[in-house]
C-alpha cells in the first residue's frame, strides 16, 4: 500500500478504509450536483495503491466502475486529473503516450517527457501495458507516428537497454566525449547516431563523467552543443535525456515552469507531471522549482489555474 517513491507529497493515508472512501465518493456523485471537494479530499490524499483498493470497493458496493461514474460527472481539466489519479503509473504513462499519438498531429513533448525520464523497468512495463490495452506495440505506434532521427532515439529508449550499473570506465568516458565532440562541434553537419549511442546506452555515473570530459575538450557544456547542433524534436529529446541524467527533479521543474509561464497554460504537461510525480519526487521538484525560479510551484499553480482544477493540483503540490 506504500507510495511508489519516498519523496512524494502524496503519502499513504493513515487509518485507510477503502469501503468508507468508496461510499464517500458515491455520496459525492448522488443526486443533483457533484461534491467536488469530497472527491478531492479522497483522491488527492491516497496513494495509487490505495486508490486501486477504493476502485475495487466501489465496484463491489455500487456495481459500476468508479472511473466511469466520475467521467460522467466531471469535465475539463479537473476530470483529466481525477481520471489520471485512478490509474496505475504504467497505465497512465501508456494512456498519455497513446493520447499523444491519437488523431492528426503528435504531441512530441509527451513522448519525450515520458521516455527520456523512465527507468528500464518502467519502460518495459509501459511496453507491456500498451500492447495489452491498445493491441499494438508501443514501438510500432511510435514508428508510425514519428520519423527520422527523432524516431530512432525514441525506439532506442523503448528497448529499455540503458546500462543501469554505476561503474565509470574512465578511458571510455574520454573516448565517448571525443566521439560526441567529433560528431558535432568539430565537423560540418552532425553525426546524430554517435550522440544516440552514448546518450541512450551508458549509465548515469558514466554519462556525468562524459559531460565533464566534454566540457574540457570543447570548452562548452553538452547542453549548449546540443542546442547549436540540433533543432526541433531531436534537440528536445537529447536535451531531456541529458537533463534527466543530471537532475531529474530539475528537469520536471523546468517543464512545469514552461507549462505555466507567459500567456496560457499547457495543461497537458502540467497535469501529466503533477499526476505522474505526486508520490515519487514532488518534494524534490518543488524545491528545485523554488531554487531555479525564486518562486514556489504552489504560487505558480495558484496564479495560473482556477476552480476545482486549481484545488486538486494544489493538494497534489502539498502546500507552499
TrEMBL record:
Gene Ontology CC terms, in alphabetical order: nucleus; plasma membrane; zymogen granule membrane
GO molecular function annotation: calcium ion binding; calcium-dependent phospholipid binding; phosphatidylserine binding
| A Pfam family reported for this protein in Swiss-Prot or TrEMBL | Annexin
Which InterPro entries has this protein been placed in?
Annexin, Annexin_repeat, Annexin_repeat_CS, Annexin_sf, ANX4
- According to the record, the signal peptide region is none
Q: Does this UniProt record's set of keywords contain Zinc-finger?
A: no
Principal location: membrane
Classify the protein's membrane topology as the record does: Peripheral membrane protein
- What SMART domains would the database entry show? ANX
Where found?
A: Zymogen granule membrane
Q: Which UniProt keywords apply?
A: Acetylation, Annexin, Calcium, Calcium/phospholipid-binding, Cytoplasmic vesicle, Membrane, Phosphoprotein, Repeat
Free-text note on domains in this protein's UniProt record: A pair of annexin repeats may form one binding site for calcium and phospholipid.
Classification via PANTHER family: ANNEXIN, ANNEXIN A4
Q: What is this protein called?
A: Annexin
Organism classification: Eukaryota, Metazoa, Chordata, Craniata, Vertebrata
Amino acid at each position: 500500500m506504500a507510495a511508489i517513491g519516498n519523496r512524494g507529497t502524496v503519502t499513504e493515508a493513515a487509518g485507510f478504509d477503502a469501503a468508507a472512501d468508496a461510499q464517500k465518493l458515491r455520496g459525492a456523485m448522488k443526486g443533483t450536483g457533484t461534491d467536488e471537494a469530497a472527491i478531492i479530499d479522497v483522491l488527492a490524499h491516497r496513494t495509487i495503491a490505495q486508490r486501486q483498493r477504493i476502485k475495487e470497493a466501489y465496484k463491489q458496493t455500487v456495481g459500476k466502475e468508479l472511473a466511469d461514474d466520475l467521467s460522467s460527472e466531471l469535465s475539463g481539466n479537473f476530470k483529466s486529473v481525477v481520471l489520471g489519479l485512478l490509474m496505475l503509473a504504467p497505465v497512465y504513462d501508456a494512456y498519455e503516450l497513446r493520447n499523444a499519438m491519437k488523431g492528426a498531429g503528435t504531441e512530441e513533448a509527451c513522448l519525450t517527457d515520458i521516455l527520456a525520464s523512465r527507468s528500464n523497468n518502467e519502460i518495459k512495463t509501459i511496453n507491456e501495458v500498451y500492447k495489452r490495452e491498445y493491441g499494438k506495440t508501443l514501438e510500432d505506434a511510435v514508428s508510425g507516428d514519428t520519423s527520422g532521427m527523432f524516431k530512432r532515439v525514441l525506439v532506442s529508449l523503448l528497448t529499455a537497454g540503458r546500462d543501469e550499473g554505476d561503474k565509470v570506465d574512465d578511458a571510455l568516458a574520454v573516448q565517448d566525449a571525443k566521439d560526441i565532440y567529433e560528431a558535432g562541434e568539430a565537423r560540418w553537419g552532425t553525426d546524430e547516431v554517435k550522440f544516440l549511442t552514448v546518450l541512450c546506452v551508458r549509465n548515469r555515473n558514466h554519462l556525468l563523467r562524459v559531460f565533464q570530459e566534454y566540457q574540457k575538450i570543447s570548452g562548452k557544456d553538452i547542453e549548449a552543443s546540443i542546442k547549436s547542433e540540433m533543432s526541433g524534436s531531436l534537440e528536445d529529446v537529447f536535451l531531456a535525456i541529458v537533463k534527466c541524467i543530471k537532475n531529474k527533479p530539475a528537469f520536471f521543474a523546468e517543464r512545469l515552469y514552461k507549462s505555466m509561464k507567459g500567456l496560457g497554460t499547457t495543461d497537458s504537461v502540467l497535469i501529466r507531471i503533477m499526476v505522474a510525480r505526486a508520490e515519487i519526487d514532488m518534494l524534490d521538484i518543488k524545491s528545485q522549482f523554488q531554487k531555479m525560479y525564486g518562486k514556489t510551484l504552489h504560487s505558480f499553480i495558484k496564479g495560473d489555474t482556477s476552480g476545482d482544477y486549481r484545488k486538486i493540483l494544489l493538494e497534489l503540490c502539498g502546500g507552499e
